[in-house]
């Protein structure tokens, strides 16, 4: 009997994530990009509470040539609502998706079973929805991590926990002035900068950030562009 596509993908993802395939775990996350002859940084966007916010980041990618890494919390509907545009940008290599769990639980205080479920459910969502394997990159929720958490994630193939060295804010109780102050402070060579798609920044605000990036002779690249396809 022929399997339907969904069953095949879910079965394939489960087969890929087996404890027997334990990868060597890091002792700590990454906080910056490797050395390069070009000036670059990683503009990373977490969560996805707001459909409008996600759409604006995708539009900025299309309009400006900046590349983003989006850390997906898969229970938020925004990731399904923007599926078509996400697929197009993935095909063009302009965005990268990372695992940011199913429902944004604090993994550092969760049981091993919850940790595995949170990461695996997000993994399967990305595979089923976009035919996309986000491994090895994941971002610990709230930036909370332990060596045990890193080991558990590595057992699922998520061997690269990604932190940050600078922020553009979480969107709550902030102004355009605050965003730009943060951008001036943190957008710099080799930095991994965190942003959030929870409360929409205006297109004008995002374009001001892009203007600063260009003024500094830089470009935002995805983590895969910076570290290479085989980085573990």
Question: Brief description of this entry?
Answer:
It is built from 9 helices and 7 strands, in the order αβαβααβαβαβαβαβα.
Number of H/I helices: 9
Number of strands: 7
Secondary-structure element pattern, one letter each:
HEHEHHEHEHEHEHEH
* Major sheet description: 5 strands, parallel
Q: Please give the alpha-carbon distance between the first and last residues.
A: 37 Å
As a percent range, the share of strand residues is 5-15%
Mean pLDDT: 91
Poorly predicted spans: 1-22
Secondary structural class: alpha/beta
Envelope shape: globular
Molecular structure report:
The protein is of the alpha/beta class. The chain is 42% helix and 12% strand. It contains nine helices and seven strands; from the N terminus they run H-E-H-E-H-H-E-H-E-H-E-H-E-H-E-H. It has helices spanning 5-16, 51-64, 78-81, 83-92, 112-130, 147-155, 176-186, 203-215, 223-227; strands at 40-47, 68-72, 95-99, 137-138, 160-161, 192-196, 219-220. The strands form two sheets. Strands 1, 2, 3, 6 and 7 form a five-stranded parallel sheet that branches. The protein has a two-stranded parallel ribbon with strand order 4-5. Strand 4, helix 6 and strand 5 (160-161) form a beta-alpha-beta unit. The radius of gyration is 17 Å and the shape is globular. The termini are far apart. The relative contact order is 0.22.
């Amino acid at each position: 009997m022929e399997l339907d596509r969904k069953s095949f993908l879910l079965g394939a993802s489960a087969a890929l994530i087996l404890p027997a395939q334990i990868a060597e775990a890091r002792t700590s996350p990454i906080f910056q990009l490797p050395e390069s002859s070009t000036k670059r940084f990683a503009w990373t966007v977490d969560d996805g509470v707001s459909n409008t916010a996600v759409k604006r980041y995708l539009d900025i990618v299309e309009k400006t040539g900046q590349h983003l890494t989006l850390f997906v919390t898969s229970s938020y509907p925004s990731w399904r609502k923007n599926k078509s545009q996400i697929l197009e940008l993935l095909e063009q290599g302009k965005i990268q998706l990372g695992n940011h769990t199913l429902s944004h639980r604090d993994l550092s205080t969760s049981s091993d079973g919850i940790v595995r479920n949170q990461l695996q459910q997000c993994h399967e969502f990305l595979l089923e929805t976009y035919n996309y394997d986000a491994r090895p990159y994941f971002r610990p929720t709230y930036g909370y991590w332990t060596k045990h958490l890193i080991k558990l994630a590595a057992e699922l193939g998520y061997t690269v926990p990604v932190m940050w060295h600078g922020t553009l804010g979480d969107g709550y109780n902030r102004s355009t002035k605050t965003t730009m102050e943060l951008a001036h402070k943190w957008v710099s060579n080799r930095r991994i900068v965190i942003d959030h798609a929870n409360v929409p920044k205006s297109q004008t605000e995002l374009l001001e950030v892009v203007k600063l990036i260009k003024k500094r002779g830089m470009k935002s690249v995805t983590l895969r562009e910076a570290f290479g396809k085989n980085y573990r």
